[in-house]
């Protein structure tokens, strides 16, 4: 009964994970390609959390500069995409309801991209994962309060996926827990439920992003 109540609360389609779904699918994203030499992009991703979150971290990198916000809280900035920044964000989260991660990214010439991974662990050991992908929203200009949860961003454009983490031109700069059990990617909305056994990790399947992205080979190498 507890599992059923939790699943209904999440409003998620929960499915058993398969071995080929265990890799963390983190992408480099941007507003468009090619980027402007001094372009600024504001990114947002809203998602639902269960009430029993035990730990949570965000790892983020941006070529060339980023500032991270979690539910409007300024977590800090990074200026070297070769060295991703990792933050403990448990205190800034709102378990049991909707949350938002927001990133301001800036290009300083050449190629540009932002990559982010949110990982949370529930008290029962299950893993939750939200990655930068084509479901993120973005714009080149944003008014005051753009990083807050109640900001209306429905008119924002979807981000363009440039490459997977590990692909050129950035390479494998973001070392994630690829050996961990399968993660959960969240999507809001009403879905049917599938049972999850005690030995399985919860996993939510997201639809593939629209094929609007250039292939990694179309991005000039550094």
Quick gist of this model?
This protein has 222 residues and is mostly beta strands. Helix content is 4%, strand content 35%.
Could you explain the architecture of this structure?
The chain has 222 residues and is mainly beta. The chain has a single domain (2-215), classed as Galactose-binding domain-like (Jelly Rolls). It has one helix and 14 strands; from the N terminus they run αββββββββββββββ. The protein has one helix spanning 2-10, and strands spanning 15-16, 27-30, 40-48, 53-63, 65-70, 73-78, 85-88, 98-106, 113-122, 127-131, 137-139, 157-158, 160-164, 202-203. The strands form four sheets. A six-stranded antiparallel beta sheet has the order 6-5-8-3-11-12, with no helix packed on it. It has a four-stranded antiparallel beta sheet with strand order 7-4-9-10, with no helix packed on it. A hairpin with a 4-residue loop joins strand 9 and strand 10. The chain is globular. The protein starts with a helix and ends in a 19-residue tail after the last strand. Residues 1-23 and 178-222 have low confidence and may be disordered.
């Amino acid at each position: 009964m507890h599992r059923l109540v939790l699943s209904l609360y999440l409003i998620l389609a929960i499915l058993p994970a398969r071995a080929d779904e265990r890799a963390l699918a983190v992408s480099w994203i941007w507003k468009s390609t090619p980027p402007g030499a001094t372009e600024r992009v504001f990114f947002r991703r809203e998602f639902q959390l269960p009430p029993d979150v035990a730990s949570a971290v965000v790892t983020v990198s941006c070529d060339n500069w980023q500032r991270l916000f979690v539910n409007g809280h300024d977590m800090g900035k990074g200026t070297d995409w070769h060295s991703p920044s990792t933050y403990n964000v448990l205190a800034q989260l709102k378990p049991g309801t909707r949350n938002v991660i927001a990133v301001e990214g800036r290009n300083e010439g050449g190629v540009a991209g932002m990559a982010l991974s949110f990982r949370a662990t529930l008290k029962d050991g299950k893993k939750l994962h939200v990655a930068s992908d084509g479901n993120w929203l973005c714009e080149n200009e944003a008014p005051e309060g753009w990083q807050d949860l109640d900001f209306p961003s429905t008119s924002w454009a979807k981000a363009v996926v440039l490459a997977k983490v590990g692909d050129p031109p950035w390479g494998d700069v973001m070392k994630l827990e690829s050996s961990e059990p399968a993660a959960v990617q969240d999507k809001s909305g009403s879905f049917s439920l599938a049972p999850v056994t005690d030995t399985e990790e919860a996993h939510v399947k997201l639809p593939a992003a629209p094929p609007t992205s250039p292939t990694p080979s179309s991005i000039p190498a550094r």
